[in-house]
Every structure is written in C-alpha cells, then in structure tokens.
Design brief:
The protein is an alpha+beta fold. The strands form two sheets. It has a seven-stranded mixed beta sheet with strand order 1-8-9-3-4-7-2. It has a two-stranded antiparallel sheet with strand order 5-6.
C-alpha cells in the first residue's frame, strides 16, 4: 500500500489546491472542488503507481466504503525524461471529491479543510493500492 499525503511539506492542507482547490476565488472552481495532489517525491518512490501521463488519463477508484469514482489524472510534471500527472480529480465534476471527503471528515460544505480537521478525523493520507487497473483508496480510521 502506498500513502498519498493530504498535507503539504509543512504539514498543512494547501489553501487553494488539493482538498481546498475550490477555495481559490480566481478560477472556475466551486467552493467544494477538490483534487488529490501527486507530488514528485511520491512518483519517484513508486513510479508505476501513477504512470506517465501519455499512457493513461482516467482511472477507476473504489474507496474503502465501496464508493466508486472515475477520476482524471491532470496537470503535468516532468520527472527525469517522463511527464507524470500532478493531480487527480473526479471526471467531469470536481466537487464530487470535495463533497465526499468533507462529508467523511466532518467539514461543512463550502468550508476549507485544515490539518486540524484531518487530525481530528484520524487520517492525513489516503492508502492507495492498484489491483488489475483499479485503484483502491483507503481513508478509513
């Protein structure tokens, strides 16, 4: 199992990206839009989990509570000579992920998620495993 952190390098939830992507009032997002950030060190540690962007753009995800989502790998970051995704969000509806995670964490819709919220919930990362082209995400406490 691989641990996808929901915190930045400083141990915080990003203000206007990741779980709080929609908190940026200067783009075309809604307050509950969210994405999961895929950082370069995470790709270097496990390069086959999220393959280079030219190989795949959408993934199927099953959460630990059996919720299913079709997610899109987005953005780009070059690592070595390959181009990898830098984030993932729900295909065609970015707020689906934000609403789902806020409901699990207990954060009111429209509000930003903080590191304290994640600590109170008991989890600051999502466990990720890949089984036969299906991603299994574990966010249980």
């Amino acid at each position: 199992m691989y641990s996808l952190s929901l915190l930045d390098r400083d141990g915080n939830v990003q203000d206007t990206h990741g779980l709080n992507w929609g908190q940026n009032g200067n783009n075309h997002t809604t307050l509950d839009d969210a994405c999961l950030v895929i950082r370069a060190p995470e790709i270097r540690a496990n390069p086959h989990l999220f393959p280079p962007i030219e190989h795949i753009k959408t993934i199927n995800v099953i959460w630990d509570d059996d919720e299913q989502m079709n997610m899109q790998l987005e953005g780009t970051q070059t690592i070595g000579e390959l181009v990898y995704p830098k984030q993932m969000s729900v295909l065609n509806c970015k707020k689906t992920l934000g609403i789902y995670l806020k409901n699990r964490i207990g954060v009111p819709l429209g509000n930003a998620v903080t590191a304290d919220d994640l600590h109170r919930y008991g989890r600051t990362f999502i466990g990720v495993t890949l089984v036969q082209d299906v991603y299994h995400f574990n966010f249980s406490v």
